[in-house]
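Predict fold of ABC transporter substrate-binding protein; 317 aa.
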Amino acid sequence: MPKLLLVIIALVFSIAPAMTAEVDAAEKRIAVMWEGKSGMTKRVHSGFLQKMKEIAPGVEVTSKREIDGMQEAERVFREFETKMNGIVFLRSSGAEFLAKANPRIPCFVGGCNNPQDLGAIKNLNAPEGNITGVTYFIPYPKRFQIIKSLFPNTKSVCLLLQKGHPATSIEQDGTRRECERLKLKYNEVVAENSKELIEGARQFQGKVDLFLISSTALVMDNTVGLVGVANSSKTPLFSFAEGRAKLGAVAELAADDEKLGGMLAESVTDVVVKGKPISQVPVKMDPDPKIIINQSIMQLMGLKFPDEIMQKAELAK
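Predicted 3D structure, encoded as tokens:
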């Protein structure tokens, strides 16, 4: 056989798999959806779209944002279920829905608390059903390791929570258990509205060493008001949610939402495009959560953080 023909045949066989992958990707359709408004979810969505364009540009992505209520969200989900190859249902409310939905196609969570605690997945390392994805969850020992490094004299904390939010019971249980382990006094405010939240926090002015912002919408949305309460008694405010240090919390430890969006895109591509079984696509967490410090608030309160933390941390802008 002529040498030139052999070269051509080799090229055809080397290119064919890539062409097949492109065709397969071009035939795939993904839906992204979430209920209600959430800045965190928008950041996850942004990171997801950016990474999908990079690693699977042929996949068609349809987004249904800020759906009004879970009843409408269920209608949208069931419609997508008949048309799509996969559905990304963001937020903790999405994970709770999927826990009961018995989805017929691959589904993915993101922008949510621990999906195991939300009932969507039993085994995060080897998901047993038709659901995997990413979570902003950070194990509580890791959270309190940072807290104890920044505030070594802390003896009592007050966790600020939203009544009825899917993440509330998760954060209550995890924070309380870790406080018990470290022999810290645990207090909490569980509020239904802004007024209850601010008034509840005021009751603990001067009575606790640290306020904790939970990753619940009501608390995150009222960060500025809580900063006023905390600063007036010079009680540090530490956040479990991203973006609160720039609003006046002295420090935060949070997953990078856009990074998680990119990790979510990788999981979706593995399952929907490459055909990897969901059981082989673990739920992913941010392996290196960000520590962000508000230096002006730190100085206002007369705090000094360890050099090793300051070198690693970002400063709030």
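The longest helix spans residues 3-26.
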